[in-house]
Amino acid sequence: MLMLSAVFFPMLMGFALFLIKSEDRTRRIYVMIVSCITAVLSIASIFTMQGEPPLTLIRLGENLTLSFQIDGLGCIFGTMVSILWPLATLYANEYMSPEHGKDRFFAFYMAAFGVTLGIAFSANIMTMYLFYELLTLSTLPLVMHELNNKARYAGKVYLIYSMSGAALGFIAMVFLIQFGGPTFRFGGSIVRPEGMDTNMLLLVYLLGFFGFGVKAAVLPGHKWLLRASVAPTPVTALLHAVAVVKAGVFAVMRITWYGFGPELLNGTWAQNVAMGAAILTIVYASARALRTKHLKRRLAWSTVSNLSYILLGVTIMTPTALVAALVHMVAHAFFKITLFFDVGAVHYKMHRDYVPEIEGCGRLMPVVFGTFIVASLGIMGVPPMAGFTSKWMLATSAVESGTVLGCCGAVALIISAILTALYLTQIIMLAFFPRKNRTLPETFPRSGRFDPNYRMTVPLIGISAIAVCLGLAANGAVELIEQLVIG
């Protein structure tokens, strides 16, 4: 019951919040308790049920079941989500305090926690697809929270892209149900029937790759991520770092390594198309981030690029590259949520949203910009941060693949690393070293600290500390991930 409770408890408690007319303090306590209980249930189920046989709730046919299981891949994703969500909830409690519709917001915010864990703990493609669709429905009201024209348009774009991608993913799901096993299996579960052209399966894989890849923001399915930046920062942080985009790369990992399998895909034109799309996205998105002045949109372009780092590792089709992709998935989650929380704090306290507007603010918000520096170094891949470990493993795996596209992938990683350093360093330099004869706007305080309160600073410091420890213990983390996934 631990695993099922972790999935359905926050969904039920979110629904209950609709029925409770609560004051702000009561609501804050309620959502924090629910988030912490869910995280404890998730971690406990991971420790006690990892590797256990699947638990089937509903059986509609031989391969049509609603089943849950915690394998190595789900263990990594579930642990990452369970650590970050309570901290994000604490941050959201403060950020959303002056906003309207807080009961509605936190109801869907909590429900999305359970839905994301449902994706992590899915035992087969049908279960994963169900929760994958529920994730779209539970996060759509969060994207549209402001209910103004921009929010409505962003929600429409998000829904169109997500549903279109899900339609392509549905085709891949049908083939995996028809020709695969009842549960995910590392190395692939699909069996090509006699008389079926291999190219048909490769085409279906590509449909699934680009379909599920919409949430992973691979070109050309990336535009929704930029539009979703109009959502409140606690939402964009989860969309861009933890829940939605990571569910996209997680689903691509599932269909690649646990569905169609590298034995079928390796060396084929389908692998080349998927890898080429990831390489193109890496360079293009990094270049667009450098040109973008809006802080959240710059970080959104950075997310688009870094997600394709992960997809590059997945499509190289070697176990080492898959481990590298998982290391980067975890590292990016911690670093990017910190960056989004930092720019959200700047908006919350100073109402500044563009790069030139934060000039000279570093000394006013030492905690915010101090953690921004830590997270930026991680995203850049500066040793000893975990971002360096993942990028190094990805680059070496790409070169060791011995293919032209593999070498192109390594070059793309280098170009992207340079561009990343430029677009993040620019923010840091402006914040701490303003240009001569530049004065702060009149609305800025002239002395003292302007950091937000503990509900924002504790998550920033806590997540940054975990990220630094992850880098210092990178070798152990790599070995643990390798053991969980590959065995």
Approximately how much helix is present in the residues? over 70%
Average pLDDT for all residues: 92
Beta-strand content? under 5%
Radius of gyration: 22 Å
Structural summary, described in words:
- With 487 residues, the chain is an all-alpha fold.
- Helices cover 73% and strands 2% of the residues.
- It has helices spanning 2-19, 24-49, 72-95, 102-120, 125-143, 149-179, 198-212, 223-227, 233-242, 244-260, 262-265, 269-291, 295-316, 319-350, 366-380, 386-400, 404-432, 454-472, 474-485, and strands at residues 55-59, 65-68.
- The chain has a two-stranded antiparallel ribbon with strand order 1-2.
- Strand 1 (55-59) and strand 2 (65-68) form a beta hairpin.
- Helix 3 (72-95) packs antiparallel against helix 4, helix 13 crosses helix 16 (386-400) and helix 14 (319-350) runs antiparallel to helix 18.
- The radius of gyration is 22 Å and the shape is globular.
- The protein starts with a helix and ends with a helix.
- The mean pLDDT is 92.
Features:
19 helices, mainly alpha, 487 residues
Summarize this structure briefly.
The chain has 19 helices and two strands.
What topology does this entry show?
Elements: H1 2-19, H2 24-49, E1 55-59, E2 65-68, H3 72-95, H4 102-120, H5 125-143, H6 149-179, H7 198-212, H8 223-227, H9 233-242, H10 244-260, H11 262-265, H12 269-291, H13 295-316, H14 319-350, H15 366-380, H16 386-400, H17 404-432, H18 454-472, H19 474-485
Antiparallel strand pairs: 1-2
